[in-house]
Design goal:
Radius of gyration: 24 Å
Number of strands: 0
Helix content: 55-70%
Number of helices: 3
Order of helices and strands: HHH
Distance between the termini: 47 Å
Largest sheet: none
Shape: elongated
Oligomer: single chain
Strand content: under 5%
Structural class: mainly alpha
Length: 100
């Protein structure tokens, strides 16, 4: 998906990269187990927390952008409640007049 805003494109790329790194760290943890060294374990926990923080930050930026630019879906109650049902055209899609 191409983005017209370079900041959003950058955040999407970072999000993909950080999710892959986090997934790789988790896979390594399950394949090889935890290290016994407390300093290495602390560093790994710090890295995982930092990646999660960056993922959340990018998701917020992308979410705010999509909320501003995406067309709203009209399936929620508030959107459907604002439709004027008296003007509703019940004719079939092929243009035939409604029978009734």
């Amino acid at each position: 998906m191409a983005d017209s805003d370079s900041t959003i494109a950058w955040h999407r790329a970072q999000l993909k990269k950080h999710r892959e790194l986090l997934r790789d760290l988790e896979v390594r943890r399950f394949r090889f187990g935890e290290t016994a060294e407390p300093q290495a374990r602390t560093e790994k926990q710090r890295t995982v927390a930092d990646l999660r923080r960056k993922i959340v930050a990018s998701e917020r930026v992308i979410g705010a952008f999509e909320k501003r630019t995406r067309r709203p879906l009209t399936t929620d109650y508030r959107s459907l409640a604002s439709v004027h049902w008296g003007n509703w055209n019940s004719a079939p899609c092929n243009g035939e007049p409604a029978r009734g």
